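Hi P.,

Sorry for the delay on this. The queue was packed all week, but I finally got your sequence through. Input first:
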Amino acid sequence: MYRLHESALPADIEFPADLKGLGYFINDKDQIRSIKNPDQDFNFFISKNERVNVVQREAHNTAVRTIIHSRLSPHLNLTHIPINAPPSSPHLPIYTSPNISTCNRLILYIGESWQDLGVLAWRTIGLTSIAAGSIINLVHAVESAPDKPGILIANPGQLLWYRGGQRAVTMTTWNALPRQTAVSLAMEISEEKNRVAGNRTPMEHVAHIFEQVIPKLAKKDVAIDVMATGDGAQIAVEHLRDNWEGKAEKNVRAVAVGCGYTWSRAEMVGEGAKFRTFWANRARGYIQNYEPLDTPLAGRKDMGCNCYSAGENAIMELIIPTAYKSMLAFFQLVHDVPGYREIADDVVEVEHEEGNKDGGTGKI
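Then the structure:
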């Protein structure tokens, strides 16, 4: 009988991991554009073959990640966790500022669980600029604060250990890794060999940051401001809720979360009196909404804290690029005013005449 040998199958696709080799350049607005057509941004659909498109995107993203890291290297250290893990053992990177061991205040950013380290929104990188869509502008804004807070950028997305490349990757990158042939399936994930100890899930990773990384790298009494978005925000709040009394309450001073809608306070914040009080006084929610950035929204009754428009009405990952300055200003206010407590925003609920235009809250 006839059978098809693997050697007869088409070879896997390869692309160079540099922008010029892919046909792109960075213009004077820090935008990635096509060399042949300077008005065109990154084109994912270069083929009817999905594998070609996926591998080309990963080559592009690898090139951009390298650029982001090179720009951040004068400002942040690439720190491997678990701390003191051998280079050949499973580990993952986070970003920390050089002053993390001496700073009195620390800004902790927790992004979405599918995102690359250092990236806020690939859409913003493609349409606006590399600096706007990555943490570059965020880092520069933190560095300009008068009290010079430290920075820690968590990495809940790159939790898969790629043994062939000796690095941690996202699921998106995992699916684009080299395969035996162009029609082969992605490599199976071994829970033993392709996971990082203490960081097997985004929830474990956030717990590891709070319980292992910050105590080892920062001052014992460092004040922590938590900025988080998407499912990273939910995970962060759940960790704080479950570990507040006697633990997180000692250091966490303020929380700002980016959300697609107002949460249920009972579900997310819980019934613990101490954490609910903190949440009401020192937390803010920035919600997807059609209203201008910082417009007060009527979400406090549901969410338990003051809510504001994130200035973005449709896409979750665009909240931080749009609202990070407002979040940092809130943190600075909490730091500058002793005993700071939020004044409850009693915003009247108003239904829009032409359907809900509030991005999910049903009120403004």
